[in-house]
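Predict both folds.
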Amino acid sequence: MNVWWLIGGVLLIEGLMPLLFTRAWRQTFEKLLQLQDGQIRFIGFASAVIGLLMLWLNR
């Protein structure tokens, strides 16, 4: 599996959310805009760590 396959999969999942669940996606995005910068950074950090662990466990 190469990097382009992984990026394509991420884009597919990211695109399906606003396509299929438009209202919920918009509400979630509006809530995200109300968070402090530190909270958003923590969410990004936690997501990156979880993603890294998932890749490491499936190597």
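Second protein follows, with its predicted structure tokens after the sequence.
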Amino acid sequence: MPIAGENIVKPVKGMKYFPEVALAGGSAPFQHSIDDVVLESMCRNIIEDLSDYGLCVLDNFLGFEEGNRVMAEVLNIKGTGALRDGQLVSTRGKAKEDLKTIRSDKICWVHGKEPDCEHIGYLIGRVDTLITRANRMFNNGKLGQYNINGRTKAMVACYPGSGAHYVKHVDNPNRDGRCITAIYYLNRNWDVDQYGGLLRIFPEGWREDKVADIEPLFDRLLFFWSDRRNPHEVQPAFATRYAITLWYFDAAEREEAVRRYDKERLALEKSTSSST
């Protein structure tokens, strides 16, 4: 199981320490388990919808039985006490209670290879397959602007009801390398009118009065651009709400972000040593 103390995202000068995973060259894991025609169709949907709308929704992604197995593993993670308060890119000058007014979810990072995470690993492999294949297809629209060769570990998130929320924000406002956000929802029989928890996206280029309202329905997979094109918020949830999120990196932007961080870190170390 994930170790709670190792799962907290630590903010440093506008950069995040992401638990990163390299994507294997060639075919992604579990590709053999997806019918090629179905895979092609899903990839085309992702390519076209991201290019046209900046987001894409795929329902009934794993099927009811496999989705339930993933949910059981998430509940097991929660039961171990591994979930911790979600963090922000920058927490300078903010008290813990102030942070909870911004985001009030509980999270941990999962590789998918831990004991009792087999089905989460299967989900991750399926999403990897879609992203890597779509990124390498011909005529792949705006997705072709990126070279995706890595991602974060999976972030398991729980909004524990009682109005838990995440205010309007951008996942990657500072070119940290993340280009695509992928969210898988695990909420059976979710009624957004009763339970809230809506994800509202404000896509760049849409009419000012137009938003994308995404209900966090069981076995739904959502993709959207991670940068400033898609500010979004999680509206207050009044029942426990679960999701698993992956962020995929553009190789060049991530390399530049790491180089920038290393330069800042060295400058800080030099400044600290000279002042002592």
